[in-house]
Write a structure and sequence with these properties.
By secondary structure, the chain is an alpha/beta fold. It contains eleven helices and nine strands.
Length: 259
């Protein structure tokens, strides 16, 4: 599912065309295995989650598979999906979701677990679970309000309304909404550009910054500042910090090694 480029950018490509990348037991298992392999790989600098199926990112849960489940199995499956999406959220490196098509329910929850979302202007996305008399169960009721604010999140979840890429950017749900191109990969190309913007920076610093932001957002300001101080301290004894100072003095591009 994932491949590491020479520059440390990993692309996780969803590829279940017969079901519009709907989240099945098997797809979730594959995603979990890929994320487990990424956790400790120091060569990984940024992860992009995209679809390899034209016109769709992820249509949400596989309802055909779910219809065959007992009530207890449904709970176990949703718990597994929630756990895997949390694994994505907890990756120590920057993550970008590239939405070049439809992202519904669990598909949008998957994207919400990423640090940054990019969507083609023609993409459609929404948490539509209330249309099926259920609620988002893989983080949507928590991550969407933290992203767009509680009032808009409630409006979108209560109504099941879809947003296109431009509307999502205006709401703060995505940061970029390029017009779709003939190949159907405008969001992915924009995500690649973002990932390459991150590459020249110190790897330890980027990881520390992500940790400080993620943990600090969940606490009061005073505690957040203490978290920032602790994360800053992690960068002080690194070889990269000394390399950055040396490169500045010598007026050259630093050569960071993540050490």
């Amino acid at each position: 599912m994932g491949r590491v480029n020479d520059d440390g950018i990993v692309v996780l490509g969803l590829n279940r065309p017969q079901a519009k990348n709907a989240l099945s037991w098997n797809l979730i298992k594959q995603l979990s295995q890929s994320l487990e392999a990424l956790k400790s790989d120091k060569k990984v600098r940024t992860v992009i989650v995209r679809s390899e199926v034209p016109g769709v990112f992820c249509a949400g849960a596989d309802l055909k598979e779910r219809a065959k489940m007992e009530a207890g199995q449904v709970g176990a499956f949703v718990s597994k999906v929630r756990g895997v999406i949390n694994e994505l959220a907890q990756l120590p490196v920057p993550t970008i979701a590239a939405l070049d098509g439809l992202a519904l329910g669990g598909g949008l929850e998957l994207a919400l677990a990423c640090d940054i979302r990019v969507a083609a202007s023609s993409a459609k996305m929404g948490l539509v679970e209330t249309k099926l008399a259920i609620i988002p169960g893989a983080g949507g009721t928590q991550r969407l309000p933290r992203t767009v604010g509680p009032a808009l999140a409630k409006e979108l979840i209560f109504s099941g309304r879809l947003l296109d890429g431009d509307e999502a950017r205006a709401a703060g749900l995505v940061t970029h909404s390029p017009p779709q191109n003939p190949r159907g990969d405008a969001a992915f190309l924009r995500a690649l550009r973002l990932a390459r913007d991150f590459l020249p920076q110190g790897p330890v610093a980027v990881r520390a910054a992500k940790l400080a932001i993620d943990q600090g957002m969940e606490v009061d300001l005073a505690t957040g500042l203490a978290i920032e101080e602790a994360c800053y301290a992690q960068t002080v004894p690194t070889k990269d910090r000394l390399e950055g100072l040396q490169a500045f003095r010598e007026k050259r591009t630093p050569r960071y090694k993540g050490e």
